[in-house]
Amino acid sequence: DGGITQSPKYLFRKEGQNVTLSCEQNLNHDAMYWYRQDPGQGLRLIYYSQIVNDFQKGDIAEGYSVSREKKESFPLTVTSAQKNPTAFYLCASSKRSGEPQHFGDGTRLSIL
Amino acid sequence: AQKVTQAQTEISVVEKEDVTLDCVYETRDTTYYLFWYKQPPSGELVFLIRRNSFDEQNEISGRYSWNFQKSTSSFNFTITASQVVDSAVYFCALSGNMFSGGYNKLIFGAGTRLAVHP
Question: Is the pLDDT confidence value at A1 over 80?
């Protein structure tokens, strides 16, 4: 079955540590996205990518970095510069910009 | 600026009741899309519907129906004869104008938590 796979499901970060969240899709979608969800709030866009080797900052990109070396993969690194990383992170993809986005199951990141 | 407001934070109903989730949006774009997504307790977002700003026809899909009114900037979602499985957080979202560079972004409302009790 086609879909989006995020791993791990739960992740713990120590102070000063960088961590990387994985997102893989086999839907052959061009566009991929990373969102952050805080309790009781909607989703906020961190980064998005329309094609391989290209990505743009979303509304809350500070403290995060991404890469898009392959069409299927869009990993997100939460750096030590992100002072409040505890949140639920959702990855999404779409055929192209503006098409409905399909979401993964999410990664819940907590601070140790 | 673009904004989506879901004024209802939580709604609680008894099974078989009808329930309407409100969504009001703000945008200066003339071309945009509106979406509804469902987030069950497991966490993933499930796409329900996309509506083009040019198409104000109401849509019905089984027990779900959507009322899009451009005059009031609203895109409300009604569940008829609600069921326990409908319990989830529902998000309304707006995409930007493809010509303004905002086409890739989805602006989400804060969500409405719906609890359907047996």
Answer: no
